[in-house]
Structure formats: C-alpha cells, structure tokens
Fold each of these.
Amino acid sequence: MAKGGAGMIWATAEDLARSRPVVLSMYRQILRALNSPELPLGHAARLAKKAECRAIFIFGAEERSLHNIRDLLDAARHTLGLLNRGRLP
C-alpha cells in the first residue's frame, strides 16, 4: 500500500466496509429523490437520470482510493441537496 503525506491513500478492507453502508444509503436517497414529482422530468428523462446515477455508483464501487471515495460521497451529497430543492444537477 502506498503512503501519502497524511497517511494511507488506498482503502483497506476495513475502510471499504465502513464506507459501504454510507455509499449505498446515498445511492438510495438519490434514486428516491429522482422519483420526486417536484422535478421537471418526463418518464424517459427520469429513467435516464437513474441510469446515469447507477453507472456512476457502479464505477465508484470499484474505487480503492480514499480520496476518490470521499469525493464521490461529497458529489452525492451535493447532488442530493440539489434534488431535494427541486433542481437538476
């Protein structure tokens, strides 16, 4: 494992186990928010946004860098905030 200036940069099995429930929760919250009638989306656009979200999280599931996992969660929180305000990311 590589070491950075501030500690480990690659996730250990414990790190991945700890972040997994948080990532799954964010994924589910975003999918639920995409179902909101507040969003100006037709059925096809809603399905496309859900597919885009799924692709991002599937790609993110392969990630082993702590920094990239943190960035994914930050982006998910930002997206969820926008969706909850009725805006599209």
Amino acid sequence: MRMDCDGNSLLHQVAIIGDFQPKERPGEALHMQWEIQWFKKVKKIVPHHFLSHLNNKRLTSQELFTNTHKDLVMKGQEWIMRTSESCSVVAALIATIAFTSAYTVPGGNQKNSGHPVFLNRRPFMVFAVADAISLSLSLTSLVIFLSIMTARFDEQDFHHSIPSRLVLGLTTLFLAVSSMMVAFAATLVLMIRQKLHWAAIPIYLVACYPATIFLALQFPLYVRVGWYTIKDLARTMRHSFLK
C-alpha cells in the first residue's frame, strides 16, 4: 500500500474525520460510534505493520484518529447528556407516580382491617403487579441514565459501553411507561366499570395518549442505537470466537 505526500497510510486517511455523516445515525454520539466501527473494520484488513506506522507528523493512525475526533467526542458527550437528562426526568416522574400509587390504592382501604377495598378483584391484582413493575423498572432506568451522566466519556466508550447503557436505559424506561399505563387502565376498570362503562374505551385512549407520543418519538432512536450496537457486538464476538 502506498503513502500520500504527508506519509499517511490508508489507515491514517480513514482516521481523518470527513464531512460524511450517515443519515441513519442521528446524533453526534452515534456518528462517533460509526467512526470507530469504520476505523476498526479497516484496521482488521490492513497489514499489521501499518498499525505502528508514523506519518510526517510522527503520529500513528490511532493517535491521528484521537486528535481529529476530539470535537466529535465533546459533541457526542453533550448529546448523550441531553438525552440522558430528559429520560431521567421521565423515569423519576414515573417512579414518583408509581410509589405514590402504592399507598393511595384505587378504592381506598377498609376502616377495620386496613386492607384495600378491591383486594379480591382481578383488576386490582393487575394494578398491584403493574405498579410494582413500573416502580422497579423506572428506578432501574434512572440508575442507568445516572451512570451514563457520570461516565468519563472516553473515546472508545462510544463504541460499545455508552450505546449499550443507552439501549438498556431506554428499554427499561419503555417498559416502565407501558407498565404504568397498564396500572392506570386497571384502576379505571375498577373505578368506572359500573357507572361509566360506555366511556371506558375513549378514556383509555386519552389516558394512553401521552405515553404513546413519548414512545413514538423515542422509539426510532431506540431502534437505531440498539440495532447498530447489538449488531456490532455480535460481529465482534463472532470474530473473537473464530480466532
């Protein structure tokens, strides 16, 4: 393989960040993930001695990659922080609602025994289980997003570590939102089943509308991050196994 006038090998040229940004990966963090994946793909096919080759500025390809991607790493960190903060607010809100609902159960409690009035009804059990799941998953999601916000954001963290945490955090958050909607629907069944049964379906639709909007807006990001991260992890594991 030939060198250019600056002594750059093929791997050096790949390490230089260009103007191209894949449209299917929105956000600077996913762009940085793509840059790392592309660099590592080329790194596997070039001769081994190219890894330690120095250009005219006495830089290896890895050092050049680090220098040219500093700004993208900073922008990726800001993007991840904004995403994690917004998701943390939602997770904290769901956890607060789920925790409050556990003490203010639908129908109230019996005066003598203190047991819930609807304890023996099936919708109440659905409410109790869904509320517990929502509380657990929302707190888990909150912890994950807090771990992302306190990460050191090293260059290589954008390859697997940060995207994997983001996927896990979004997964638990989506499940927490869905569980909260199930708990709310079960509460409506208990409270309006007798008097307003004719309005049950419209009320369910209106109640689920905010959660549906949130899921619809965040789901494309979740799919993209999850797909490219899991796909690359599977490829890496398969390559290691073949070795």
